[in-house]
From TrEMBL:
Keywords: Lectin
A molecular function (GO) term: galactoside binding
GO biological-process terms attached to the record: sprouting angiogenesis
InterPro entries the record matches: ConA-like_dom_sf, Galectin-like, Galectin_CRD
GO cellular component: extracellular space
Highest taxon of the lineage: Eukaryota
Pfam families: Gal-bind_lectin
SMART domains listed in its UniProt record: Gal-bind_lectin, GLECT
Transmembrane intervals: none
Designated name of the protein: Galectin
Keyword Calcium: no
C-alpha cells in the first residue's frame, strides 16, 4: 500500500494505525524518497527468516541496504490494530510504539523532508495523520 502526495517534514508528527493480518509473518513501513532510497525501513517480524517477535530497522541508499538494527521490545499482536507515532530530524527517527515505549534509528540519508511512504507485508493501513 502506497500513499501518494504526502510530505513528511522534520518537526512534524506522523501518526499511523496499522492492522497486521491474523496470520501475519511480518510487515514493514518504509519512509524515504523512492523505493531505492528509504531512510527508515521499520520491519516488525512475528515469525520471519527464523526470527520471532523482533523489530528490524534498516535503510536503503541507492538500492543498497545498510546495517540492520534490531530491537527485542515487540508490542505487536497478530490481527490487532496498533498505533504508533514517528518524528524525525536530520540525525534520528523517533518511534513511539503502541505500548508507549520509544525507540530511535539514525536518519542515515540525513534529509529533513521525505515524500515516499509505503506499507508492505501482511498488514493494512487503517489511518494516517501528519501534523
Amino acid at each position: 500500500q502506497k500513499v501518494k502526495n504526502m510530505t513528511f517534514k522534520e518537526g512534524q508528527e506522523f501518526k499511523v494505525r496499522i492492522k497486521p493480518d491474523g496470520d501475519s509473518d511480518s510487515f514493514a513501513i518504509n519512509i524515504g524518497h523512492d523505493p531505492e532510497n528509504i531512510a527508515m525501513h521499520f520491519n516488525p517480524r512475528f515469525d520471519c527468516n527464523g526470527e520471532t517477535n523482533t523489530i528490524v530497522f534498516n535503510s536503503l541508499s541507492g538500492g543498497h541496504w545498510g546495517d540492520e538494527h534490531r530491537e527485542g521490545n515487540f508490542p505487536f499482536v497478530r490481527g490487532e490494530e496498533c498505533k504508533f507515532h514517528i518524528n524525525f530530524n536530520n540525525e534520528q527517527f523517533y518511534i513511539k510504539l503502541p505500548d508507549g515505549s520509544m525507540m530511535n534509528f539514525p536518519n542515515r540519508l540525513g534529509d529533513v523532508k521525505y515524500k515516499y511512504f509505503n506499507v508492505s507485508g501482511a498488514a493494512r493501513i487503517v489511518g494516517i495523520k501528519i501534523k
